[in-house]
TrEMBL record:
A biological process from GO: endoplasmic reticulum membrane organization
UniProt membrane topology term: Single-pass type IV membrane protein
Coiled-coil regions listed in the entry: 158-192
Protein name: MSP domain-containing protein
Subcellular location: Membrane
Coarse class of the protein's main subcellular location: membrane
GO cellular component: endoplasmic reticulum membrane; plasma membrane
Family matches, as PANTHER family: AT11025P-RELATED (PTHR10809:SF6), VESICLE-ASSOCIATED MEMBRANE PROTEIN-ASSOCIATED PROTEIN (PTHR10809)
Record keyword Transmembrane helix present: yes
One Pfam family from the record: Motile_Sperm
InterPro entries, A to Z: MSP_dom, VAP
Domain of life the protein comes from: Eukaryota
Species assigned in the record: Paramecium sonneborni
Keyword Oxidoreductase: no
Amino acid sequence: MQGLIDIEPKQYLDFILQEGKVGQTTLNIFNLTSNKLAFKIKTTSPNLFQVKPTVGIIEGNDKVCIDISTSILLKEDSKLESKFQINACILEQDIQDLGIFWRQQDAQLIQQVQVRSRIKPAEIHQENIPQQQQQQNEVQEIHENVGQMYQSIIDTSSKEKDEEIQKYQEQVVQLSQDVSNYQLMLKSVKEQEVAIKHHGNKFELKQVMITALISLILGFIFGK
């Protein structure tokens, strides 16, 4: 018989390992029909588990939650490999004693679904971290953020210094070029000054010779 119920979880009932505590989990059974269903849960290790309830009725299109816990305290080396079988069938009329109902029920009218059990290690969530550890994590995060900010400032300052040094180097090169040009210009001026003086002396000597020649000629004429 198929299509009466569905279960969640479908494959494994997970019992979270907590050292020195019993394992607990929940099994949901869904009625996929509009009829009342009777259900019954069996396990291969009845002494190892407590199932509440083991039998019951599910209204049409409704569900029930089954609480399952271990009868022993779980340890690191504990193993759970038991199977659970969920039986369900349509309830034609109100029944006072479901135990009698299940003993008399035709097996062909029963839908059977199976699920396994297993142990899972406890997951560490942020909210379960001790307050002191959480504070240490926050302090470490703050230190990392401050370090990143400081490194960013250093990088920016170093970059600005490099740009300033490069700017000064460019100014020194420009000043050196200006000095070289000034020296060339000064040399040219001096050469021009020497040339002028040289030409000037030649002009004065020529004037003196002409003047002397004229004086001689005039003296010769007037002497006559």
